[in-house]
Design goal:
Blueprint (H helix, E strand, L loop, with lengths): L3 E6 L4 H10 L15 E3 L5 E6 L4 H6 L5 E5 H7 L4 E5 L5 E7 L10 E6 L2 H11 L2 E6 L6 H5 L4 E6 L3 H5 L3 E9 L1 E5 L3 H4 L1 H12 L4
Parallel strand pairs: 1-3, 1-4, 7-8, 7-9
Antiparallel strand pairs: 2-3, 4-11, 5-11, 6-9, 6-10
The structure holds 1-O-pyrophosphono-5-O-phosphono-alpha-D-ribofuranose.
């Protein structure tokens, strides 16, 4: 039986994704056990789940090392990898926003220093606005940058808004809404058509 390998982004989407898979009748109990395992065979199915850092999911899918992935639209947009986005899974809803100190509301700066984990999304957004920017790439805890004086603003995902609030920052502009996506390798979708369609239908069916 053909095995379908599904990469699952660790972190903020992980819990919700496992819940969705369980609801669809997939026995993901093994993913809830407290250990450091990264590869899981899902009982009574052709599915193998691989836990990856979110930013690595599109790379694994593009290279065909896995057939599918569940990852945030932010990561898909930022990386522009060769893959198919087959479904919006509806959970993991966030906004990609420009945020900063409240006094920067209605900012009118000729040149803006922007700290972000999303340099490509940021570059495109400000280019469309005709705003000159210096992009400072960060790997995490982006909220620190304007507080510490590394940047004027940040471009980051906002879910509950707690991180901004707890650090005295506010949303200045909303760039777009995002959510979790089911993505697939471009070859697997043809070579493992039946099994892939079965899994896509199972996972993406009845979203909401
Ligand atoms: C994300 C994002 C914000 C926070 C927003 O970081 O970069 O820091 O979550 O969520 P909230 O609006 O619910 O507070 P993440 O937790 O993914 O970790 P990171 O900072 O290490 O990238």
């Amino acid at each position: 039986m053909a095995v379908i390998k599904l990469a699952l982004a660790k972190g903020r989407l992980q819990e919700e994704a496992i819940k969705v898979l369980m609801k669809r009748g997939l026995d993901c109990q093994c993913l809830l056990e407290k250990n450091r395992k990264l590869i899981f065979d899902i009982p009574n199915s052709c599915l193998q789940i691989i836990l990856l850092k979110a930013v690595d999911v599109p790379t694994y899918v593009e290279h065909g090392v896995v057939d599918m992935g569940i990852v945030g639209k932010d990561v898909v947009l930022e990386q522009e990898k060769q893959l198919y986005e087959v479904a919006d899974l509806g959970f993991g809803k966030c906004r990609i926003s420009v945020a900063g100190k409240p006094e920067l509301m209605n900012y009118n700066k000729k040149h803006l220093r922007v700290a972000t984990k999303y340099p490509n999304i940021t570059k495109q957004y400000f280019a469309e606005k005709g705003q000159s920017v210096e992009i400072i790439k960060q790997e995490g805890s982006v909220e620190l940058a304007p507080i510490m004086g590394l940047s004027d603003v940040i471009v980051d995902i906002v879910e509950t808004g707690n991180t901004l609030r707890d650090n005295g920052l506010v949303i200045l502009e909303e760039i777009m809404s995002i959510s979790a996506r089911l993505v697939s390798n471009k070859v697997s979708i043809k070579t493992k058509k039946d099994k892939m369609n079965e899994i896509i239908y199972l996972i993406a069916n009845d979203i909401g």
